Description:
Blueprint: H1 7-24, H2 26-34, H3 39-61, H4 68-92, H5 98-104, H6 108-119, E1 123-124, H7 126-152, H8 161-199, H9 201-223, H10 233-261, H11 263-267, H12 273-285, H13 291-304, E2 312-313
Antiparallel strand pairs: 1-2
Helix pairs in contact: 1-10, 1-12, 2-5, 2-10, 2-12, 3-4, 3-9, 3-10, 4-8, 4-9, 5-12, 6-8, 7-8, 7-13, 8-9, 8-10, 9-10
Amino acid sequence: MTSPLSHNERRGLLLGLIGVTIFGLTLPATRVAVAELDPIFVGLGRAVVAAIPAALALALAKAPIPSRNQFISIALMSLGIVLGFPLLATIAMQSAPASHGGVILAMLPLATAMAGALVAGERPSLGFWLTGIAGAGAVAGYALLSAYYAATTGALSSTSPAEAIAASAALQWADLLLVAAVISAAMGYAIGGKLSRALGGWQVICWALVISAPFMLGVVVLLSGPINWHASPQAWAGFGYVAIFSMFLGFFFWNQGLALGGIAKVGQVQLLQPFVTLIASAVLLSEVIGRLEIIFVILVVALVALGTRMRVTRSPS
């Protein structure tokens, strides 16, 4: 069931690794930003800001206008990675630690592979699916255990039973939001990866940001609260990171990596993203990384990383 990596697959994996490293800082940066800034402003306003350099890049490169069918695909991709994932993840970060969210997002490789099979005609082998399903099961086990421990031990042990139950419910709600964010991102990644074969990775994310900017701006104006212009430099730095790096530059590498190496195979590089998020959470947010997080991240990586060596049949189109 295994197969050697081609030159394009190796290049795709390297580009994917750069993108994943950039994405791995998204949750910690978001958590810093939402501490002082409105979550709608952070979750959707990032796309409005990112649309400015995107439009400049398209204009300077004199990029050709996509076809009607390509525009439809770009719009669908935007629903997943410009609207769905940022908004859902931002709301979740109000209730869950960034380290916790990083482990839940370990389901992304499996979800991306499934989306690749649905959208781009890729056909992973049985071994790929078995390791992916096992990894997703480990992540689900982590979510259940962490919610249980949050309600019975640690910081919540000194709270009242009602407060502990409320905190546990908030964490479980955040888990549901993060799962929905995973689905949104996976579909957006698959569509973007397929489009990048024809348009190039950087053009895909630029067009997605530009065409969605008017809608996103309207939603931000209507739904977000007053902008806290007096927020700390740290909060604005967090917002700046998710706007320029997470929403814009990271996709230059990620989309092209998916196009070169395949959506399912390069998607497995996302297994390293929890490590980046856990380290960033500890360094930037002083979050305590417990044995539970470490054990489950290692377990997920050990189970699903085998997928990079499993055979994946790709559609020629």
